[in-house]
Each structure stands twice: as C-alpha cells, then as structure tokens.
Amino acid sequence: MLISEQKPIEEILSYLEGDKNIFLIGCKGCAEGWGSGGEKQVEEMANTLQEKGKTVTGSVVVDMLCDAALSRLKLRAYKKEVAAADSILVLTDGAGVQTVAELVDKVVHPGCNTLSSGGAHAEWKEAERCLECGDCVLEFTGGLCPIARCSKHLLNGPCGGSQGGKCEVDPDIPCVWQQIVDRLAKLGQLDKLERLVTPKNWSVSLTSGPPVKRLS
Amino acid sequence: MKTQSNLERVLEAGQFAVTGELGPPQSADSEIVRRKAKILKGHVDAFNVTDGQTAVVRMASWAACLIGKGEGLDPIVQMTCRDRNRIALQMDVLGIAALGINNMLCLTGDHQKFGNHPMAKGVYDVDSIQLVKMVKDMRDERKFQCGEEMAVEPRLFIGAAANPFADPFEFRVARLAKKVAAGADFIQTQIIYNVDKFAEWMKMVRDRGLHEKVKILAGVAPIKSVGAAKYMKTRVPGMDVPDSVIERLQGVPKEQVSKEGIQLCIDIIDQVRQIEGVAGIHLMAIEWEEAVPEIVEAAGLLPRPRFVT
User: Fold this and answer.
1) Neighbour-count burial of A116, counting CB atoms closer than 10 A to its CB (0-12 exposed, 13-18 middle, 19+ buried)
2) DSSP code of residue A175
3) Mind giving me the DSSP string for B109-167?
4) A145 with A138: CB under 8 angstroms?
5) Nearest-CA distance from B103 to chain A in Å?
6) B86-98 vs B61-70: helix axis angle to the nearest 10?
7) Pairing mode, if any, of strands B215-220 and B186-191?
C-alpha cells in the first residue's frame, strides 16, 4: 500500500500552465483507499479543471495503475482521448505516475505526494520506483524519479560519472538522468531541464522527517 | 573584484591562469602538505585541495588549505555535498571565509561506494548546482538558504566542475549553463586526454556564449605508467582516455614512460591553449606534485603573474 495525498491545487495548476487539454488518470488501488486519486477524486478534479478553463479530454481509473500490463490494456481503450490531450495528470503515488510515463509518450504531471509505503511497495517488481519522499518532483524530471533512481538524488541533471547510459556506481544500474534526458528529448521538452531546481524539502520524507508521518 | 582571490585577479587581468591540485594525506601529517605546497609555490596561481576524493578519508580540505596558505599560496577549498547537509555546508562556508580562504570549488562528490567506507550514508541534501547558488546568495545577498540574513558575508570566488566526457554529451553544456546561471565564477574541467572531444564541447560552450560569462580552466594531468592510463580508461568514472594515448606510452621503453607522460601533458596544454574560450589550466598531478614545476616551465607558463599589494 502506497500512501499518498493530493498536492495543493495551486501547485497542480502551475504544472498545467500552457496546457489546455488534459487527460486524467486515477487508481482504484492505494489512491482510492487513501482518497487521493480514486473514482471520486478523479471526477472532482475533472470538474475543478473545467472550472479553471481546461478541457478534460477523458479520464480513466485503473484497478492497479502500477501494474504495467494491466494499465497498458486499459489505456488502449482511450487512445483517442490521450492523443487529444496536451498532457496527462496522474492522481496517485509516484509508482503510478512512473507507470504512465513508461507507457505513454506524453508529458505526465504528478498530482500527488507519496508519503509512505505502509510496509509494501505496490506492484513494481524489478526496482524501487518511489522512496516516498513526500515532495514529488516527477513534474520536473519527465515522470522518472531521480530520488529513487539516481545514486546521488540529483535534481539538476546527471553527475560527471554517467557514461554509456549507466550509473557510475554499478554497471547494472541504468543512469536515470540519461533516461530523463532521452524521454524529454523525445517529447521536445528538454528546455524543462534548463530551469534551476531549488533545494528540496526533505522534512516531509520518510527517512529525514519526523518518525510519525503526517497523514490527514 | 568580487574577492581577495589571487586566481580572480589573474583571470581578471586577462592572464592565462594555472591552478594545481594538492592531494591531502590520509593522516594528520602536516609536513606532507607543507612539502607539496612548497613544490607548487611559484608555479601555480592557486592550488586546490581535494575533499575526500574517491570518498577516501583524508585530511579536511580547509585544514590543508590553511597549511598551504601559510606557505604563501592562494588556496581553493573543495567542498562536496556527499558528506554535508545544507546546515553543515553553510557553516563551513562561513568558517572558510573567516579563515581568509578566498576560493571554493563546489562539487557533488564521488559516491561513497568507491571509497574506504562504502557502508557510509551519503548525504546529498543539495547538489553541486544548488550549492553554487547557496554560496552566491550568501556572498551577494547576505542570505542563508532559508532566507535569513547575515551581518558579514563570505567573500568567496566560486568555482564548479564540468565533465565534457560524460553522457548525455548533448546535455553537458546545458548543465554548464545551469552552473553559470547559479553563479559560478570559474570552471575546472575533468582531465582532458581526448582533445578533439573537448574542442567539440568548447564549440558548444561558445555557441551559447558561456565562455564570456565564466572562466574555464581546462583540466590536465600527466600519466606515470601504462597501467595508470589503462586504469583511468576502464575504472575511473567519467574519464575518456583514447587508445592513441595508451599506444603512445606503450611506444617508448619502460623507463621512459613517465617522461613521455609528462611530454603528453605538455602537448595537451599546448593544444587546449589554442582553443578559444579556455582561460587557463588546472593541473592535477595526482600524488606526483614533483612533476608540476617541470610541466609548467616546459609549457611556457612561467613566470606566474605577481601583483604588488
């Protein structure tokens, strides 16, 4: 169970600036359980976005979004709606956002912060995708997490040890910054990486914050 | 002039700058530092002391800097984000400036896995670019990272690193641009053996006009043996050692390899000096500081500029 909560609406709207048409994705697993991105929240978000002048091209709530095979099947039925969207807003934890980023060649915005794994790690079998840092940065990194997947948690691009797509620490580890650059290049969004990302708020993370998570 | 730094003065005067690396000991032996500083004196405009390079425990950079300063040299303290969070970093910045050190190179740091304490917890609270910005705001805005103000600011000439040989190659200049935007005054690059690739990178640097906003010092280093060259090629992250370099060293008798390694370094200095936008060199004679005077002299970089104060 990944425990998440929605980011403040102002932050979400700042991500969507310049995008008119939005496709919405939620999850009937953890996000439904925690009220951050189930059926109800997706519907509410669709209304809010429309009130703010956005067009919601469509929405889907997948049973377990972090199950890539299942989500691929589900999304196939929404090909047209996804294609019509400028970007996708995902209302669930970091694992779900990264599933969508892996499946769809569109800009993916995280709508939630992941607060805790609650003991388990969703359906990602092959690697840790979310460290529950509580301050989701996937917006700035093409939907791939440098907190969980960069050995130095870098926020402003690859270190000097990235070579041939591999992390300097271990040749079996792909350099996530290479993947981020590749993905944003494919999406024509490399300029996103020119922005200076400021120091992160670690006080809300599982490992650096207070021992009791702030759960609403 | 933003600071009292000799390096800044040399660069501002439009002189081709020379900095050199001093590796601190894995002990509390101050004599080693003094001996190395004496070798470098008169041959460099400023000297860097590494900060736990390859994540091996060594004498603190600021401490060795202070010993070298006592010998009359201008120190560049190196500061990594691997071992300190933003609180420790800012405390060290204040202390370093208070001790009269004028230059600081901001680095993320070699990963702890490579060192002699691979079980250590890496910090990485901020990255090197955020560190540059933090020091710049402390110096120019008198502000801590949290936004609070201070009475006396640390006057540091701010440096950062760049590696033209790492991937993704196309992104490397964008990353340099971020360091410049964050406030870097000077750049010291990774050691150059592939001059063609460095020249290609410099062209991209000039295309963005970055060479006019930041002083770029090209990293160079002599190689002592064929084994060392092969080790750098295969084992050191972010290095690019072309086969032609190894073949050149293999082409001379064994007892002449180190001499050839020095000549190779001199040749590379001659080549990078011709590249528009290169403001100086950073000479990293790792555990071989004795080679520095010979290289600097043979490269025609003596005498070093002196300013009357």
Assistant:
1) middle
2) -
3) ---GGGSS-TTSPP--SS-HHHHHHHHHHHHHS-B-TTS-B-SS----EEEEEE-TTSS
4) yes
5) 22
6) 10
7) parallel
Q: Which of B299, B309, B286, B238 is nearest to B48 (CA)?
A: B286
CATH number at A200 reads 3.40.50.1860
| Contact (CB, 8 A) for B225 and B288 | no
Sheet holding A107-110, edge to edge: A55-62, A21-27, A87-91, A107-110
Hey, is B176 helix, strand or coil?
A: helix
Dist. CA B59–CA B115, nearest whole Å: 14
DSSP summary character for residue A197: P
Minimal CA–CA distance to B284: which of B275, B276, B295, B273? B295
Spell out which residues of chain B touch residue A175, defining contact as CB-CB under 8 Å: 167
A213, part of any domain: no
* Residues B127, A154: C-beta atoms closer than 8 Å: yes
Distance from CA of A151 to the nearest CA of B (A): 8
Q: What is the pLDDT of residues B229-276, one digit of tens each?
A: 999 999 888 899 999 999 999 999 999 999 999 999 999 999 999 999
Q: How many domains does chain A have?
A: 1
Question: DSSP string spanning B186-246?
Answer: EEEEEEPS-HHHHHHHHHHHHHTTGGGTSEEEEEE-----HHHHHHHHHHSTT----HHHH
Question: How far, rounded to the nearest angstrom, does the alpha carbon of residue A96 sit from its chain's CA centroid?
Answer: 7
Q: Which of B128, B130, B166 sits opposite A161 (nearest CB)?
A: B166
A121-130, B178-187, B246-255, B299-308: range with lowest mean pLDDT: A121-130
Q: For residue range A106-143, list pLDDT tens digits in order.
A: 999 999 998 877 656 555 555 567 888 889 999 999 99
Domain membership flag for residue A216 = no
Instruction: Quote the ipTM score.
Output: 0.91
Q: Which domain holds residue B187?
A: 6-223+269-298
B235 → chain A, closest CA residue: A168
Is residue B264 a part of any domain in this protein? no
Handedness of CA B200, B201, B206, B211 (dihedral sign): negative
Q: What is the number of other CB atoms lying within 10 angstroms of the CB of residue B133? A: 24
Burial of A215 (0-12, 13-18, 19+ CB in 10 A): exposed
Q: Quick check: B108 and A154 CB within 8 A?
A: yes
List all residues 6 or more positions away from A53 whose beta carbon is below 8 Å from its beta carbon: none
CATH number of the domain encompassing residue B135: 3.20.20.220
One-letter amino acid for residue B87 of the chain: I
Is the residue at B261 inside a domain? no
The answer to whether position B239 is within a domain reads no
Residue A137 lies in a domain: yes
Nearest Cβ partner for A196 among B125, B170, B181:
B181
Flag whether A25 is in a domain: yes
How much is the pLDDT for B4? 94
Range of the domain at A79: 3-204
What is the domain count for chain B?
Answer: 1
Non-local (6+) Cβ contacts of B147 within 8 A are: none
Let me know if residue B45 belongs to a domain.
Answer: yes
